[in-house]
Amino acid sequence: MAIRRSIVGIDSPEVLSTALRDAQYIADEGLATATYLALALGKPLLLEGAPGVGKTEGAKAIASVLGRQLLRLQCYEGIDAAHALYEWNYPRQMLAIRQAGDAYVNIYADDFLIARPMLEALRYPADTVLLIDEIDRADHEFEAFLLEFLSDFSISIPERGTVRAQEHPVVVLTSNRTRELHEALRRRCVYHWIDYPAPHREAEIVMMRASQVAQDTAWRVVAAVGALRQEPLAKAPGVAETVEWAEAATLLHDQGASWPTAFKRAIGVALKDQDDLAFIEPRLDQILGETAA
Amino acid sequence: MTGSALPRPLLPFVEFATLLRANGFPIAPEQTQSFIAAVGLLGPRSLEDVHRAAIATLAPSLERREEFDALFRLLFLGQGIAAPAAADDEEEMQVYDEQDGGMEPPEPEEAEESGGAPTGAERLFARQFPPLDEAEALRRFRRRAPRELPHRRSRRFGPSKGGSRLDMRRSLRAAVRRDGELLQLPALARRQRRRRVLLLIDVSGSMKEQTDSTLRFAHSLAQATDRFEVFTLGTRLTRITRALRRRRADQALSLASSLVSDWDGGTRLGDALQAFLSVPRFAGFSRGALVVVLSDGLERGDPAAFVDAMARLSRLAWAVLWLSPLATSSDYTPETSALQAVLPYIDRLGDGSSAASLCREVLQLEGRVA
Fold first, then answer.
1. pTM for this predicted structure
2. Could you state, in order of their start, the residue ranges of all structural domains in chain A?
3. Which residues of B touch A49 (CB under 8 A)?
4. B312/A275 touch (CB, cutoff 8 Å), yes or no
5. In this predicted model, what pLDDT tens digit does every residue of B194-203 receive, in sequence order?
């Protein structure tokens, strides 16, 4: 196993953490360590967590820290090789054949190959970060196929032969854990479970992401969101919702609404489920009141 | 273990992997290797580093994280394993999933005071020979199920005769073979996939007469399709999917009945369903699935929780089929207020009085709903 102690000057979790912060992403020690290990060991990084805790953002920040292009592959039920790997440009091949007439034409040249994210990442491993987003949405066949890709980092194209990566590409996988991933997949990755951030960290995130928001507003939103996450909601507000709620409430406040009212009126930004809203409605004043104190 | 080839400082890490394996964590040798490399990369400056490296490379599942941490403390700090906090809240609905709980089924509760309550295994043993027509109905079900269980359109395309989309890949290949001439246009159509069937079986006292035939039906379903999940609802929720995968009916049923510890108890359908929905992995089973509830709907718990759960279930599921042993005639109207309140969330209320009627209802559902 090839171990690279330092990648673009990043030689410890702390350095990485600082670099991520410069890229507007605040990572805790666990995430910074896991990410550093993934980079150093040349293994894919598997991030799991509830929706909205910043998994995809994390991948974007990693790409920006490394100064590489992010290739995003969004998974869905029924995703297949043509969307993940490559496809031939059939109309162009057809035209080329017609145009060539009797002459020879190589219809399997690069011109006719449409590279999808996974092939692209193999071709240019030093310039790209591959994000395989929401892997739990893809079906089991795709997961099995991914196993092969993640262990060998090679793809074979019948007409062209095998494409093998010169070095291990940086791969980030995310999962919302709507279903259990296969053990074999977890085994090949460096794993990190992203939890909701601690209050002080979340307040920091709010202020970093939404520069308009005052410090005490940020703290109050974070406290209110923390209280909401304690409730048995169908969809607890994520970090993105916290930021949006703070922004929305600030906007309403600037237009003249008083504080608890501004929060209350903007609740639709934080809770996006009718049942949740109806459930929390009667006690919303109380929750906001407690957190304001 | 042969530790001779390994440098001494590495021993604890290898030992940790061995300890984890002994406790049922699937740790590959490759992961141990990464773990050691990771520890080396991090310094390690503190035990915290070793711990983080362990979590990142050995990837314990979230449910077993506490156990993992306890083993970590045991090996690296020499602490004993604290007894897991027994969250035995009486109000809490217990969920039992054999996948998480290792091989041991939970101890049957000491509920034998009533005298006559036989255990599941005994009961199944006593009624091993179902009437012939039931066996025949189940056999027919198994034969017809692959075609007649509900389907959905897959995202994938496959070759088809009357498809609406042109199969460019095959057209081109055919054309190349014939010097650029197209003789026919192969088409693509969406493939069909079977929908998942989620069976929720009420095992309360009032359903006592039916549990045997419903379990046999569940086993037939398990043999007919691989996309299914079976849970029993009573005073607790038990997942028996894996037990039913066994091919031999006797084996599968006695394994399943040994897992279920609340036979013939009371019913708290609402709580059991809420418990089902609160586990995201379980709730995911119902997404887009055909949900079949086998129950008489005699709810003794809180009807509000029950109605709420059914509403959520109906939003997740493709269709909800409620089969009640009381609904033998077509003009049956439910008498309990709980069942009346959930009627809007049920796509069909059908006859669940015998295995034959169960088979009929499930197979004919696609035509009725679509």
1. 0.62
2. 13-81+116-194, 199-292
3. none
4. yes
5. 889 999 998 8
